[in-house]
Amino acid sequence: MNPIPRLSLLLTILVALLGAVACTRAPQASPEQQQVFAELWEAIDENYVYEDFNGVDWPAARERYQTVIDSGLDDEAFWASMREMVSLLGDDHTVFHSPTETAEMDQLRGGELGYVGIGVFFRALPHKNYAVVLFPFPGGPAERAGIAPHDRLLAADGKPLCCDERGEARVDLVLGPEGTAVDLTVQTPGQEPRRLTLTRAPIQADFPVIARRLPDDIGYLLVPDFQARGIARKTEAAWRELAAGGPLQGLVLDLRTCQGGDGEELVALLELFADGDLGYFGRRHRRRSLVIQGRDAAGSQSVPLVVLVGEITESFGEVMAGVMQETGRAVLVGAATAGNVEAAHRHDFSDGSSAWIAQETFFPPSGARWEAAGVRPDHAVPLGWDEFAGDEDDRVLQTAVALLAVPAR
Tell me: the pLDDT tens digits for 88-121? Predict the structure, then answer.
């Protein structure tokens, strides 16, 4: 028998066998994915504020997601899996960000975030099936089209803006290439829905501090958020400008849109209006005191103060309002806050991704537990940010003005 055909046959069988082995070999996560997965899991395991991990079997979660990433994932699927693992904790303060998201968050914190969109900062209200405008960015397409705070965003190009599977607003629907159009369905409280066509444009996300002088020599400051670096400096400048206009009978500090942000901004704002030992942040086995060295800026430490809060007020916004209420520095008006007073710390990973992990929760001097329960106002006025269009319908602001208009409140 000619040995050549037999050798050829053997080689064919061998190649087929090797191919079969290759096809049945389980895909493997890249070494970088393995490393990031281990870094993320260990960061939560060592630092998460609750020892019971909110009832989650954290070692079992590691085994489950090890299997997931071992199946072989591209980067987007891997990052989605890490978000999913973190979401098991059911904690809004503990989140995972991909490298791109991390870079964008860094830009936002530095006040440098530029993107292409319609220029509006909004919040999902899942229980109402729409998003509400907190404020439009100055000079952007939304502001030029007449979109204002309190407007409800119902849909973009016919698709509901609220909500995705995580209960968050569909921000992706309003983003897109420069010069492209988006058809918005918008409703101002008390009016019928209307349709607007906006052209997407480059946006510089600059968080504005709203300041104005109300009748009866009462000042008004809206601090939108603590996310952007320098928001406390902007607030002080706005306050000084108000005070320079003549004596004020009182100040309304509006934190109804404030969802927290940077702890350094919280401290700087508290220094402007408060003083002393205001409580502590507690973690598993130790605590960190919140002691403020107050400083007076144009009468900021003595001006009669009313703070406005609502269901959107969250995190460090709640802490600021609550401690000023407990110490008697301010009267609170509005609705109970969100009840989310954990303090998150950032952890950076080897691929440029990051996670914010809830490592502490705040306790005021009284020891009250604001987590879940929220901060309760002194004067309850059940009116959501999405339920009025202007000062004439803002019963929360009207109540605050009435309190400050009384000389001895």
Answer: 998 888 999 999 888 877 765 555 556 789 999 8
The dihedral built from the CA positions of residue 284, 285, 286 and 287, taken in this order, carries a sign that is positive
C-alpha closest to that of 91 among 357, 370, 373, 369:
357
Rounded distance between C-alpha atoms, residue 233 and residue 297, angstroms: 12
Say which residue the tokens 């397409």 belong to.
141
Cα 96 from Cα 85, distance rounded (Å): 9
Dihedral pair phi/psi, residue 214, rounded to 5°:
-90, 165
The full 3-state SS of 363-383, as one line of letters, equals: ECCCCCCCCCCCCCCCEECCC
DSSP symbol at 226: B
**Omega within 30 of 0 (cis) for the link into 162:** no
pLDDT at residue 28, as a whole number: 64
Tell me which residue of 273, 288, 246, 372 sits closest to 328, measured CA to CA: 273
**CA–CA separation, 341 and 362 (whole Å):** 6
Cβ pair 281, 338 in contact under 8 A: no
Contact 320, 341 (CB under 8 A): no
pLDDT tens digit sequence for 355-374: 999 999 999 999 899 998 99
109-123, 145-159, 167-181, 364-378 — which is least confidently predicted? 109-123
Structure-block tokens of residue 143:
């502001």
Identify the helix (H) or strand (E) that includes residue 333.
Answer: strand 331-334
Predicted TM-score (pTM) of this structure: 0.83
